[in-house]
Every structure is written in C-alpha cells, then in structure tokens.
Amino acid sequence: MMKISIKTCLLSLLILNGIAHAAEIELDSFASRVEIRPFTSLTLSDEQFLRGDKNGPTVTLGAELRFPRESSSGKLPAVIIMHGSGGINAANQSWAYELNKAGMASFVVDSFSGRNLTQVASDQAKLGRFAGVLDAFRAYEELARHPRIDPNRIALIGTSRGGTAVIYTAMRRFQKTWSPEFHALATFPLYPSCFDELDQDEDISMPIHAFHGDIDDYASKEQCKAWLNRLNKSGKSVTSVEYKNAPHSFDNLLGSASPVVSKGAQSTSQCHISEKSGALVNTDENKLFSYGDKCVTYGPKTGYEPSAANAVHKAVIEELKVLIK
Q1: Which terminus has fewer CB within 10 Å in the chain: N or C?
Q2: Using 50, 70 and 90 to split pLDDT, how confident is the model at 70?
Q3: How far apart are CA 45 and CA 130, in angstroms?
Q4: Model confidence pLDDT, tens digit, residues 89-126
Q5: Contacts from 315-320 at CB under 8 Å and sequence distance 24+?
Q6: 96 and 81 in contact (C-beta within 8 Å)?
Q7: Following DSSP, what letter does each residue of 16-82 receive, concatenated?
Q8: Which residues pair with 60 in a beta bridge?
Q9: Other beta carbons within 10 Å of 145
Q10: What is the DSSP letter of 247?
Q11: Using an 8 Å Cβ cutoff, are 202 and 233 in contact?
Q12: Quick one: 230 exposed, middle or buried, by C-beta within 10 A (0-12, 13-18, 19+)?
C-alpha cells in the first residue's frame, strides 16, 4: 500500500481550501483583462486646492483598470474607486469584483504609492484631504481618453477618505477650476467625512448617494448629513442612507466581526470646519484648522457588518444600472 506523507496531506488540504475560496467568487466577477494605467496629478495643500493654486509638485499615480468578463464590442461604462486612509483594501477590491460582475469596468486608484505613502490614518496632515478630489478628476480624465471606455458613463465610488474625495467632485466650482471636461454620472461616497460649509457647496452637477453606519465614530457623518440636507432643501438630487449597527468601514470583508479600535488613527468627527477666504477654519475656536486641535480625537472604531455591506452593494449596483441604461 502506498504511503502518503503528512506533508502531502497538508498540501492537498491547502490546495482544496484555496479552490473552495476561489469558487466563492463567481466567474463573472473576474476581469477579462487588467491594465495598470499611470496618470499624473499634483500634491497640494488644502489651501492651494481651494484657491486654485496649481504650483505644487507633479506626481505619477497608478490605477488598476479591470474589464468585465462579458462585454459588448462597444464602449463600456466605468466606475472610479477611491480608497481611504489605509490605502487600497478588501472593500475597494470587492467593489471592483461587483462592478465587473455587473458588466462595468472598474478603475481602482492608488493615491499613496506614487507619493511614497502607505497610510495617513495616524497622521492625516501628510496629505491634504482635497488631494483625493484632484486625483479623482485626473483619474476621470485618464479613463475618458481610453478607447474602450464611454466618457459619458463614468461614476465614482469612494470609501472613507476616498468617500470625501468623490463627494466633493460633485461641486461645480471645483470642476471649473480643476477639470472643466469632468461630467460624471453620479457619485457614491461610503462613510465619508465632510466639512460644515465650503464656498458654493450647494452648486453641484450630479447626484450624490451617500452611505454611513449609525455607530460610525470615525467619519464626520453629522456634518455630511447637514450638508446633504441643505442640498436636498435646495432641490438637488441627493440621498443619505444610514445602516443600523454598522461601524466605519462596514463593507471591508477583512474587517473585524465586531468593531475594534484603530490605534493611533485620527478622527475629525467632533470638529466643525468651514472654508473662509480659501482656508479651512475651526469654527469652534475661530482659528485655522490643524490636526493638533483639541477637537481631533484618536482611536475610532472600524469593523465589518455583512448585512450593511450586502445592502450597500445591492443599492449602488442597482442605481448604477439605471444610470448607465
């Protein structure tokens, strides 16, 4: 009788386990083609961005463009995906899979590697919060030039800091200054942080569909809800959904099953920040905002909430299908 070693058995189990996990992802979720696309952006302070000052260092960023498995020979709809303070994670990857499964191309932007950053969660001052807005504009311009992408059917999804990035691409003021040809269909920010008020922030060009968790203590969700409420009252197309028992990063499949403290991470959820004369001001202290202000807190919680994750995937994909027709 042939003897089978323990090592061989373990190897076989590992292979079978890998196959089982791969089988959990439907074939339509895989890309038929993947391209790594470089594009240029600028690294600016928040004040430079707000004032339209383009005198900042140029940076080359990269993004992963994934084409759906089944697609027509015509130009494809696409969705730009912007990551949060920790860089690209499982949440961003899962969105790419879901979009490909739905017949759309995905464009996952890396705002960090080209800037020699891996994370800014513990020191948000390393990169201005509007840097992601500019990166999203530049990503749109790169996609719009692609021969396989329909420039009239591009939307945006962002998580956390990336949610902040995509929500502010809706402002016409920023579009006119930084990307005059930008005309995305809609933006879907997930658990973004927002400012209390920016100049001309009620003049938006596209629908905003925002999503938060009701136990999120990381993002400044109340400030977002207040702004979206102002937009709604002025007749703009906006929606705001809040999921029960959902913490920050609730769609990250690799997150903890129960919320855990993000040690050392900074949060501005208790800060009230508005724009005055092209600068961000802490209105509680009537001074220029800085991450040294007493309103900045540390150790917010993150975690995965499967029902909220499933609900947001379904809601966004269904809305996108309507938009792209």
Answers
A1: N
A2: confident
A3: 8
A4: 999 999 999 999 999 999 999 999 999 999 999 999 99
A5: 315/209, 315/211, 315/241, 316/157, 316/188, 316/209, 317/98, 317/99, 317/102, 319/186, 319/188, 319/209, 320/77, 320/79, 320/99, 320/102, 320/104, 320/155, 320/186
A6: yes
A7: HHHHHHHHTS-GGGSEEEEEEEEEEEE---HHHHHHT---S-EEEEEEEEEEESS--SSPEEEEEEE
A8: 40
A9: 11
A10: -
A11: no
A12: middle
| Residue 241 Ramachandran class (φ > 0 left, ψ -120 to 50 alpha, else beta) | beta
User: What is the residue type of 217?
Assistant: D
Alpha-carbon gap, residue 191 to 250, rounded angstroms: 9
* End-to-end Cα, the chain, rounded Å: 63
Query: pLDDT confidence of 72, banded at 50, 70, 90?
Result: low
Q: Indicate the CATH number of 28-253+305-324 among 3.90.400.10, 2.30.30.40, 3.40.50.1820, 1.20.1440.230.
A: 3.40.50.1820
Q: What is the pLDDT of residues 212-245, one digit of tens each?
A: 999 999 999 999 999 999 999 999 999 999 999 9
Amino acid 25 reads I
Per-residue pLDDT, 25: 72
Mean pLDDT of the 12-40 span:
69
Tell me what pLDDT residue 24 has: 65
Separation between Cα atoms, residue 209 and residue 315, nearest integer Å: 10
Which residues are 212's β-sheet partners? 242
Whether residue 14 has pLDDT greater than 90:
no
**Bridge partners (DSSP) listed for residue 66:** 34, 106
**214 vs 225: CA distance, rounded Å:** 12
Paired with 280 in beta bridges are 275
Q: Which residues neighbour 237 within 8 Å (Cβ) at sequence distance 6 or greater? A: 206, 207, 208
